[in-house]
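Summary for the funding panel

The consortium committed to producing paired sequence-structure records for every protein in the target list. Below we show the first two records in order, beginning with the earlier of the two.
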Amino acid sequence: MQKPIMAADPDAKVSCDLTAPIVGVDSTLDETALAVAISDAGYRSEKLAEVR
């Protein structure tokens, strides 16, 4: 079974800092679609920064 973010955007790059705990996502999805994918996976999300 694919993870919801990867199903929504197969080209997404996901990085994890388990000590923080923070997960970074580089995706072409808009912010709302990304938040829905994270919520569908059973997690909450909070935008900390945007890097372009």
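The next record, for a separate protein in the list, is shown here:
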Amino acid sequence: MNGKVVSLNIKLPEQVQASGRSFFTGYNKIPQQEPVFLHKTHFEGDGVGDTVHHGGFDQAVCVYPYECYEKWNAELELDTPLVIPSFGENITPLGFLEDDVYIGDVIQMGEAVVQITQPRQPCNTLASILCRPDMIKRVVDTGRTGYYLRVLKEGLVTAGDEMVRIEKHPAGISVTEANQIKYGFEKDPAKIQRLIDVKELAENFRQSLIKKT
């Protein structure tokens, strides 16, 4: 499976006013043209505002697929189309949709090697920045959540770099299926346990599933 980094986006956290509230966030990321070094927990010059719920080794990189933008712009009928990175992602990839990638997949991205750990969970920041209170439900219902990566090998990443899946996880549980389990669309206990048993799954995500069983 091959694709590419369409956009690489970073931003240090800042105080933001949106949808009538003020909050500290690194959501408003800026596309970069020069190579950026990917550390174990973050891109150089990037950060998160809510360190309780975001960031760390299992959420070092936030990914949101390029193809989702066209779908949202067709559905939302906005006066101004959404532009990259409107979903606050670090990496906007071409060819790595939620249906097509699996928890535990290993991907070469520039000099770095990364691994898919969990779906992204939409939060109030997304709804506030986009000024769409309905966006959390829409993202969950469509399964267009994006996902997180952990860093197996640090290195430079540049917009335009090729992305290659170098290991497909044998369990074959897609990000889409993980979303269906997380949000209760998939209720089969055996399928839920199968995801829990994937050792590469982010630990916080695993614990949230265990609490529901």
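Regarding this second record: The two ends are 34 Å apart (CA to CA). The chain has a mean pLDDT of 95.
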